[in-house]
Design a protein that fits this description.
By secondary structure, the protein is α/β, with parallel strands linked by helices. It is about 40% helix and about 15% strand. It contains twelve helices and 13 strands. α9 runs antiparallel to α10.
Length: about 350
């Protein structure tokens, strides 16, 4: 059923946000509500928002997903098992591959016309080569053994979403670069914890370039993509990189946040090759350290992308300036304890 058919039936347009209690999910919910739309979320964690219908459930549970999808017109699929060396390896396939397939199957079974998938830049990282202002023509890695489990699972999830695109279900994938903002549980918190520990080391020579995207801008891209998504539209069946403004070194980007919190950032640089060798040694003794070859590679090798395609196909441009995003995030960080 398309949007017009939904309106003729007298049923309000309903948007389902999987992972709606997370950083990106909450930002999407907020922007959908700004547009006066009806929103429902499903998440394994209970959310607190009396403006939306909240369902506590797991996307690996087909029955729970079906209940959440009742009467829905658009699914924003942000829920995922995010890379964390402390998680059991099987969780990535269960959530990011099988869970995503459950979402796809349910959309088809219940005639939901639109599915916007939250992807990641990690799907093109091969653990060796860098990317400098790359676009969507960059292929998936040919040697998937060099990918970490998270990246591999997100690649399979994205491929399934794009394959499902057709007359009955229009799909697209938004590949987000390093995301930050209120609700961040990974990027900034990890840097803050390291700074609090007194470790003064940073990886690489400071020349590697990296992209970031503010959660509000990532959400804006999702909402715009959904508005333009439909059978035969330029967005249907496509993948898009989504980022903010300028590129820069990972640690240089983080330093102002630490300074705003009255903390000192790391200053002593470890060369890439040495850091990589040390990470390999750490992995020999434990698989649960945040210091590993993937983290070294992803901060010491160029990893920048352009969003020209998203601008062309659905008019994406960062809604929040770099200054606004910094201020909003810093104010939130000041309320947190890490």
């Amino acid at each position: 059923m398309n949007t017009a058919e939904s309106s003729r039936s007298g049923r309000s347009k309903v948007n389902l946000v999987t992972g709606g209690a997370g950083m990106l999910g909450r930002a999407i919910v907020s922007q959908l509500l700004e547009r006066g739309q009806v929103v429902r979320i499903i998440d394994i964690e209970p959310a607190k928002d009396d403006r939306v219908e909240i369902m506590v459930g797991d996307i690996r549970d087909a029955a729970a997903v079906r209940r959440a999808c009742e009467g829905v017109d658009t699914v924003f699929h942000t829920a995922a098992a995010v890379w964390d060396p402390k998680l059991p390896l099987g969780i990535y396939e269960e959530t990011n591959v099988k869970g995503t397939q459950i979402i796809i199957d349910t959309c088809l079974q219940m005639e939901i016309p639109r599915l916007v998938y939250s992807g990641t830049l990690d799907v093109v990282l091969d653990g060796k080569h860098g990317h400098l202002l790359a676009d969507e023509s960059v292929p998936y890695p040919t040697d998937v053994k060099k990918m970490n489990r998270y990246a591999y699972s997100k690649m399979l999830g994205e491929q399934a979403v794009i394959k499902a695109n057709g007359p009955a279900l229009s799909t697209c994938s938004l590949r987000l670069v390093g995301m930050y903002g209120p609700g961040d549980r990974y990027h900034l918190p990890n840097i803050i914890k390291v700074a609090k520990s007194g470790i003064r080391l940073r990886l690489g020579n400071g020349k590697a370039q990296f992209n970031h995207v503010f959660s509000g801008n990532a959400a804006h891209a999702h909402v715009l993509a959904a508005e333009h998504l439909g059978p035969g539209s330029p967005v249907a069946g496509q993948v898009y990189f989504i980022n903010d403004h300028d590129t820069g070194n990972f640690f240089a980007f983080m330093d102002p946040f630490l300074e705003g919190l009255g903390m000192r950032g790391p200053k002593i640089a470890i060369p890439y090759r040495l850091a990589y060798a040390l990470a390999w040694l750490v992995e020999r003794f434990t698989s649960q350290s945040n210091f590993n070859r993937f983290s070294v590679y992803s901060t010491c090798v160029d990893s920048t992308f352009v969003h020209n395609k998203a601008k062309r196909d659905f008019g994406y441009h960062p809604r929040f300036s770099a200054e606004e995003a910094f201020k909003i995030t810093l104010e939130w960080l000041k309320t947190q304890t890490f």
